[in-house]
TrEMBL record:
CDD domains: AdoMet_MTases. This is Methyltransferase. Pfam families: Methyltransf_25 (PF13649). It comes from Pyrococcus furiosus (strain ATCC 43587 / DSM 3638 / JCM 8422 / Vc1). One of its GO terms (molecular function) is methyltransferase activity. The keyword Methyltransferase applies.
Length: 228
C-alpha cells in the first residue's frame, strides 16, 4: 500500500541515472558477481523494477530476463532497454507464479523487494524460485533487515531531497510497519512487511541450502543459496 507514491517520490528504485540508483548498483554489483563466477549463464532478475541490475549483468555477458508485476516498471525498463540497445527480455509477471519452465535459470537475483511480501507470499516466491532454478544454480537474495533497522529509523529523518519520515507505526503483531513520509507539499504512507534476517533464513531453509552471506552496510544482507 502506498507504493505508487513511494516509487514516484524516490529515484532510488526508478531512475537509473540518479545518484541513488547508481550508488546501489555500484555497491551491490561487485558483491553479486563474486558469486556469479562464470560471467555467462541465464539470469532471472526477479522483481526487477526498471532493470538497472539486469543491464549491469547483461553488460558482463549474462543472458537476462527481468520480471516485475508492475507494468509501469516494466514499461520504464523497456524504454531504458531501447535506449541502450539491450536484449534483456522484460516481462510483466508475478513472482509467486512464475511464467517459466522448471530448471530454466543458472541464477535468480532478488534485490530489495521482500518488504512487498507477506510470509505466505514469500513462501510461494521461494517455492517458485526453487522450481525455475537449475539444480546447480544459485539464488542471490539481498534485503534490508527491517527488524534491525526500524528501531534506528528516527522520525524527522530526511530521505532524499525533500521528504522526511514523519511517523512510524507497527501493527500489534509487528509484521507490518507503516511509514508516513512528508514534504512541504506532499505526504503519503507506505506499508512494509517487516522481514528480519532470521525470518528470511527460516523460510529459505525449506527450499535452499545457504552457501554464503555478506553484510552490506549497516542493516542489509546478501545471502547466496543453492536449491535443495
Ligand atoms: C524496491 S523495488 C526493487 C526493484 C529492483 N529489484 C531494484 O533493486 O531496483 C521492488 C519491486 O518489486 C516489485 N514487486 C512487488 N510485488 C511483486 C510481485 N508479486 N511479483 C513481481 N514483482 C513484484 C515491485 O513492482 C517493484 O518493482
Amino acid at each position: 500500500m502506498g507504493f505508487k507514491e513511494y516509487y514516484r517520490a524516490f529515484p532510488t528504485y526508478t531512475k537509473i541515472e540518479s545518484k541513488e540508483y547508481k550508488g546501489r548498483v555500484e555497491t551491490l554489483g561487485p558483491i553479486l558477481i563474486k558469486y556469479m563466477n562464470k560471467n555467462r549463464g541465464k539470469v532471472l532478475d526477479l522483481a526487477c523494477g526498471v532493470g538497472g541490475f539486469s543491464f549491469f549483468l547483461e553488460d558482463l555477458g549474462f543472458d537476462v530476463v527481468g520480471l516485475d508485476n508492475n507494468p509501469e516498471m516494466i514499461e520504464a525498463a523497456k524504454r531504458y532497454a531501447e535506449k541502450r540497445s539491450s536484449k534483456v527480455n522484460f516481462v510483466v509477471g508475478d513472482a509467486k507464479n512464475l511464467p517459466f519452465e522448471n530448471n530454466s535459470f543458472d541464477y535468480v537475483i532478488f534485490i530489495d523487494s521482500i518488504f512487498h511480501f507477506t510470509p505466505s507470499e514469500l513462501n510461494q516466491v521461494f517455492k517458485e524460485v526453487k522450481r525455475v532454478i537449475k539444480p546447480e544454480g544459485r539464488f542471490l537474495i539481498y534485503f534490508t533487515d527491517l527488524r534491525e533497522l526500524l528501531p534506528n529509523l528516527k522520525e524527522r529523518l530526511v530521505i532524499g531531497e525533500k521528504y522526511w519520515v514523519n511517523r512510524i507505526t507497527t501493527d500489534t503483531s509487528e509484521r507490518i510497519a507503516t511509514i508516513e513520509f512528508k514534504s512541504e507539499d506532499d505526504e503519503f504512507r507506505v506499508e512494509f512487511n517487516i522481514w528480519g534476517k532470521t525470518g528470511v533464513e527460516l523460510l529459505a531453509k525449506l527450499y535452499f541450502t545457504k552457501e554464503a552471506e555478506e553484510k552490506v552496510g549497516g542493516y542489509s544482507y546478501l545471502i547466496v543459496y543453492n536449491p535443495k
